[in-house]
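Changelog note: in this version the structure field was regenerated for every chain. One regenerated record is shown below for reference.
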Amino acid sequence: MIGVKLISIHGLSLTKEMGVGRWEVRVKSGVKEKQNLVVVKVGGSLVRSPKDYVKVSEILVRDILEKSRAAIVVSAIKGITDLLISICNGDREALDKVIETHRRFSRELGITGPYSDHVGALEEEVVRYSAMCRESMIHRDRVLSIGERFSVIALAKTLSDMGLRVRIAWPWDVGIITDDRFGDASPKVPDIYEDIGASVRKIIDSGYIPVIPGFIGVTKDGYITTMGRGSSDLTAVLIARATMSSKAILLTETPGIMTTDPKIVPGAYTVEVMDFVEGERASRYSVKGLNYKMFEHVWDYDGEIHILDLSMRGTKICRECRREGAKVIAPFAGGISVIGWGSGKVVKTAVGKNPMNGSNIELRDEVETLVLSKADPVELVRIIHKEVFGR
């Protein structure tokens, strides 16, 4: 349920949960006990229609919320962030599409009462700042945040209708404080870990499920920031680290991390397990499902990250998950990267069987081997994937 106490974030009135302010609770410095809770992120690819919020909510209840205490992070509706960017690039039609989409979702989900007041305020906000966001990064971030701010209302309302006790926890409520690099802000860690952990746990300990918008934070001066595309994963892992939860579950449309892009190799398959080092290295090559910024918060996190589809199939990533062998092959301009502990030997064998003019093998370290070549990187992926993974 949404409370009625008001705070002001630079001119915008927002409802705030009574007694959930980020300054009200503190935990002992240095506490690192792993908590018996999970943090779940619902990716935007999973919420394309109003019915998707119902489907996702049912799966959350069946597979997670009936078994564990949890905090939920949610992304914007698929495609909304792109429309919001277009608004700030001067596209009037995009503004109309965002308003119409949010109104349609509100009607079909039956969003009324305080939830509806929130939606109305967001509509007024996107109209008001649609011109200003063309020139100002501060206003641009404010507009771009509206996708997640609507989505968190939609998911909270849906879960509430199913009888769950939920609370919307805005970033400024739970202490997700960032620097002022608008458009690509970074959380002010490690200073904010304690406030986030204490605030989120307080909501959970009071018997509610916190539902938190991903992607956005706030500066210490009260300006809304965005943390880069795909950073709802960052939000979820940040909260998991701050609460020392046992798992961060990142729900998406694909069954985890694939051995390579299935568009390149249709026979690519899910990597069952990888460790943080392998995951971080793969994220540098924009491997789908891995946001590089989330790995900034895992090195002292003892929990697990699970990247799963709605059938709960996917990839587990953790500190103690090291297994020898190649995991992922990623193309880049000038070659490919094969990532996995001890991958050098198998790469040398694969290249030896398929000599290519101008190809060189560079062993970067124990976890990554590069094949540098003038050949088409996509074709190179196909050749090496066949040799390494047998398909």
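Spot check on this record: Residues 1-8, 13-32 have pLDDT under 50 and may be disordered. Residues 328-389 form one domain.
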